[in-house]
């Protein structure tokens, strides 16, 4: 059996800001014991140059839901209203959240980084481990 292609797969080359975020995420992986970092290793102040364009999203199982925990000011401004503390299925689907829930679901199920690009922006989702499952997603945005 061949391995299925991951929807929202990463291209060979990312925009520099997204590549920087991916490198930060990879740098948090604890050796070969894990394929992703633990969510509590993420220190947003270390990402100061990207702070406006990143967010942390809590991932819940059964039912699968995603809650915006920390949302950069650039993301909230583009969306046009406050997102922090809200669930993805409770907000209107518009820029920069088109296809967010499906991408987040693929990121959790595939246990790997994903990328959505469209509407003049790109969105990178990175899974984070905690409490025995993927419990958070690190999300970064960039204009394209």
How would you sum up this structure, described in words?
It is a single chain. With 144 residues, the chain is an alpha+beta fold. The chain has one domain: PAS domain (Beta-Lactamase, 2-Layer Sandwich). It is 21% helix and 28% strand. It contains three helices and five strands; from the N terminus they run αββααβββ. Strands 2-1-5-4-3 form a five-stranded antiparallel sheet. The mean pLDDT is 93.
Annotation field: number of helices: 3
Compute the separation of the termini in Å. 36 Å
> How much helix, percentage-wise, in residues?
10-25%
* Rg from Cα: 14 Å
CATH architecture: 2-Layer Sandwich
- CATH topology label: Beta-Lactamase
Strand order across the largest sheet: 2-1-5-4-3
The shape is: globular
If you average the pLDDT, what whole number results?
Answer: 93
Count of DSSP E strands? Answer: 5
CATH class: Alpha Beta
What does the largest sheet look like? 5 strands, antiparallel
Task: Please report which band the strand proportion falls in: under 5%, 5-15%, 15-25%, 25-35%, 35-45% or over 45%.
Answer: 25-35%
């Amino acid at each position: 059996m061949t391995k299925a292609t991951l929807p929202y797969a990463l291209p060979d080359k990312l925009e520099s800001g997204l590549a920087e975020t991916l490198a930060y995420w990879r740098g948090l992986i604890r050796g070969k014991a894990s394929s992703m970092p633990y969510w509590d290793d993420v220190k947003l102040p270390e990402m100061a140059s990207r702070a406006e364009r990143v967010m942390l999203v809590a991932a819940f199982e059964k039912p699968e839901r995603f809650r915006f925990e920390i949302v950069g000011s650039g993301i909230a401004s583009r969306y046009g209203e406050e997102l922090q503390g809200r669930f993805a299925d409770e907000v209107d689907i518009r820029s920069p959240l088109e296809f967010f829930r499906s991408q987040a679901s693929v990121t959790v199920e595939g246990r790997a980084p994903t990328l959505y690009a469209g509407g003049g922006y790109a969105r990178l989702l990175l899974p984070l481990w905690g409490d025995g499952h993927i419990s958070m997603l690190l999300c970064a945005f960039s204009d394209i």
